[in-house]
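pasting input
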Amino acid sequence: QVQLQESGPGLVKPSETLSLDCSVSGSPIVNQYYWAWIRQTPGKGLEWIGSIYNSVSTSYNPSLKNRLTMSIDTSRSLFSLRLTSVTAADTAVYFCARNDSGGFFANWGRGRLVTVSS
Amino acid sequence: DIVMTQFPDALAVSLGERATIRCTSSQTILDSSNNNHCLAWYQQKPGQPPRLLFSWASTRESGVPDRFSVTGSGTNFALIISALQPEDVAIYSCQQYFNVPSTFGQGTRVEIK
């Protein structure tokens, strides 16, 4: 049974960098699945941020691409999100998820609320 | 980007009655390699992450009750709850994964009348 758990600061100042980790258990993190970040705001609903496979293949939402970096740490079985130059519009619940074959999400973390505020 | 539009934004249905949630894609989401639509449906209860109900437009996830069904083709799809139960109160969202970026509908809130 795959389990995902988000961690990271819940408060980030405007113009700074939002960094989150997703710890994965019960599933290989390499050579089998893409891993994704998705965020949710009351006004915009669910928004796919990006996906990563094996540290060598990433796919980012073009709307965030210029500010976004995703990475995998195989030694710690986690993948990470870095979003630079954040504004209040980046305030959201951030979910990590396993990207199953084709591109849907069968397994999700519980989510991490990140607020951008000074 | 492919725009996914759901209708209605919210609906209130009596217990035991039928609820229909519609989802329209702005362009085709048919994967010609397997002749399946790249569409997923999710259920989200307050304070929880989304739960996958259906993938490939009609593949039911394990554990999803039979009262949930799906229909549709082309660019028009629907999720149907045949007899609403109290535990079905949630927000339901569709997602296309045919193109990057993958996109979601705005969500439909289902409540009990």
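fyi The radius of gyration of chain B is 13 Å.
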